[in-house]
Amino acid sequence: MAAPPDAETLESRINTATNPLNKDTDWSSIQAFCDQLNNDSKGPQLATRLLAHKVQSPQEWEAMQALLVLETCMKSCGKRFHSEVGKFRFLNELIKVVSPKYLGSRSPEPVKNKVLELIYSWTLGLPDEGKITDAYQMLKKQGIIKQDPELPPDKLLNLPPPRPKNPIFEDEEKSKTLARLLNSSHPDDLKAANNLIKEMVQEDQKRAEKVSKRVNAIQEVKESGALLTQLLQDYDSTASDPSNAELVQDLYQRCEKMRPTLFRLASDTEDNDEALAEILQANDSLTHVINLYKQQVKGRDSKRQQHVKHSETNSPARSVRIGHVAPVASFLPRVSHSDRRLHRPPTGDGDESP
C-alpha cells in the first residue's frame, strides 16, 4: 500500500532532525525518526544508510546532530537496528570519519571524538555484536585510539535483558500484525491471522533449508578439499596407481562444480555476515586446492608430454620429417647386382629376359 503524498519518510525526518539551521536539538523529529524506524520492516537498513551519509557531513553541527540521532536510536530501538549497526558495512562508514586514510584529516575533532565514544560504549553495552569490538580494537592497533574514552553514566548503553524469541516470530512487523489480528473478535481477522501464521512458518522452513544447504555445501568443500590436498602431496602421474589418479580427477571435478554453488549461496546470504564469511573462507580453500591441482597434475603432465615430444623429435628413428617424403627404396633391403635377376618378375611369356 503506497504512503499518502504528505506522509513523512525516514529521509525527510532525518533531514529535519539534522538540519544545519536548527538552533537547538529537535527532539520531536529524532523520536519520530526512531518510531518510524521501528515500525518499518526495512527501517534499520535504510536508517543506517541515511545516518552514515549525515555523520560524514563536512558541517560539524549537522554531523553532531546525526550522531545524537544514532545514539538515541541505539538506546530506544531494538535488536534489528543493533544488528545493522553491528555490521562492517555501517561500521566502516564510521571508521572513515576518524581514519586519516579517508575523512579523518578533515573531520572536526568533536565529531571524531563522539564517534569513538559511541563505538566504545557499544563494545560495553553490546558484547554479542563481535564486529563492533573488532572495529574498536582495529582502531587501537592503528594508533587512532590512544586510550579508552571516559564515559559519563548517561552515555552508557543500558539495555533491558533480551526476551527469548521463537525464530518464526523474529520479524517484529509481522509479529505486531499477528498480535493485532489475534486480539480481534472479527472472523476475517482470525482467518487472516491463521494465514499469516502459515506464511511465517513457511518462511522459517525456507530459512532452515537455506541454512541446511549452506552447511552441507561447506562440509562437502572441506571434505573434498582435504582429501584432494592429501592425495596431491605425493602425486606422481607416472608412478601413481590408476585408481588414485582417477580419484584425484574425480575430486578435482567435484571441487570445480562446487564453485558456482558457493557463489549462489553467497548471493543468498548478503545480510548474514557470519554465514557470508564462512562461505568466502570455503571459497578461498577451494580456490587454493584447485590451483594446487593445476600446478601438481596438469603442470606436471604438460611438462612430461613436452619432454616426450622433444625426445621423439630428436630421435634418429624419426629422421623423416613432416613435409618430406623419403624414397621408397630407402626402406627396402639392399640387393647386389648379381642377385637382381632372382628378384625380377617373370615376363608375359614365362621366359626371363636376357
Structure description:
Residues 171-298 form the GAT domain. Residues 298-312 have a biased composition (Basic and acidic residues). It is a peripheral membrane protein. This protein is an all-alpha fold and 354 residues long. The chain is built from twelve helices and no strands. The chain has helices at 10-17, 27-39, 43-55, 60-76, 79-85, 88-98, 109-125, 130-141, 172-182, 187-233, 242-268, 273-314. The chain is flat. Mean pLDDT is 76; it is low at 1-6, 159-169 and 317-354.
Low-confidence stretches: 1-6, 159-169, 317-354
Largest sheet: none
Residues in helices, as a percent range:
55-70%
Q: What's the count of strands?
A: 0
Distance between the termini: 117 Å
Structural class based on helices, strands and sheet pairing: mainly alpha
The radius of gyration over CA amounts to 37 Å
Number of helices: 12
Q: Which percent band covers the strand fraction?
A: under 5%
The geometry reads as: flat
Instruction: Specify the oligomeric state.
Output: single chain
Mean pLDDT: 76
The sequence of SSEs as H and E is: HHHHHHHHHHHH
